[in-house]
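Protocol step 4 of 5: obtain the predicted structure for the target chain.
Materials: sequence only (see below). No template structures provided, no constraints applied. The aim of this step is simply to have a reference model before the mutagenesis design in step 5. Sequence pasted as it appears in the construct record:
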Amino acid sequence: MKIVICGIGEVGSHLARLLVENGHELVLVDPNPDSLSSIEETIDARIVIGSATSATTLKSIGIADTDIFLCLTSDDETNLVACSLAKALGAREVIARYHAPARQDHELFSYSDHFNIDYLVSPERLTAAHLAREIRSPISPVLDQFARGSIEVAQVELSENCPAVDFPLMDLKLPLRTRIGLIQRGSDVLIPSASEKLQANDQLILIGSPRPLAEAARQLVGEKKEKRFRLVVYGANDVTIALIENFNAFDVQIKVIEPDRARCEWISEHYPWVNVVEGHAIHSQLLIEENVMEADVFVAATRDDENNVMSCLQATKLGIRPSLLVIHRPDYAGILTDIGDILGINATVSPRIVTGTELLRYITTKPYVVLWEMNRGGAQIIRIRLKAESSDIFGKKVRDVVWPEHALLLGIERADGTLMPTADDTIEQNDALMVLVLPKSRESILKLFASAL
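Step 4 output (structure tokens):
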């Protein structure tokens, strides 16, 4: 495929290397020659010095025959305008980066629809989601999340003593917006019917909204009460904001340590339930004064890698386990992953790596995107965008669609949010459908929606 990347920073350069390794034809665009010079000698790509928002620049690189156009600069406005322009000039798919504080705007107004953008990607929110998965209760280990974090996939195993054993699904009365999507029983994987009885040692794949999903997991394994959780985060930046919002629906006590007073005041104003402390978490005295040793988890999420490492070491010294850190430099990320156990650091998260992994999902010639896969060649959750101008499927209720066996509609993503559909909801133009499929049913699903793609 021909792929254009505008904005060659941490995320753009990492993605470029991944794409070249996979044999794609690559064009890199940036107005800053210094950004391009460091990558020009290391990968096989066409290098263009120019503005992503210039129609002249875009036409000069052959935007009309571009399969995927990505604008990954640090400026949201540039990314939105460049992607809109690229789409109008003929690019097949366009992807824009956006930043965490813009989330409320994106919930109130569909920037993707207005600017005709196929996908919006936030490195900060992806990093926070990855951290949240590491932090969350072991009762419902979160495997993945998508649809702007509104739908999650989790896994639980039923022991012989679990109260759900021997009950048919229809009698479980799980929380709304949750469902048991898959059962792995020995070597068999099935999408269960309502009459299916659960058995001891079943591996269940749960799907739903975050808070109800956690409640469903506790109900299935017999955990009576949600444990209140104490989280300390060092750094009041975009990742921290996204992490706070990841835990809005949970009983979590959050303390944020930040040396910049203006940032402290901003967090206090916008998230008054968060305890904000002005100071440096690399100093053990401050951590002791703030009783940080009582926390369940410590996360270092500043932009300074050295401070993140040092603060995690201080937290570990005080007995806080687990401790997690955000790391930006690629040379640090590899080393810390290798020696994290020795240092007492439980997990390192690199924004450029998690974003690159996410973007690779969308770089495909297939009419769907794989959001989650149980194992290679196994069950998948796929996202199908209905972009046709007209189709006889539009306006149909979910109950009136003849769904293939071994397929389950999980969610409908729209400009105003994502819903877990009921039988009375309708399928509409521009919907993005999230469907759980076994391999034998994927082609049937694509055939069902062929006129709407």
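Step 4 remarks: The chain is about 35% helix and 25% strand. The mean pLDDT is 87.
Proceed to step 5.
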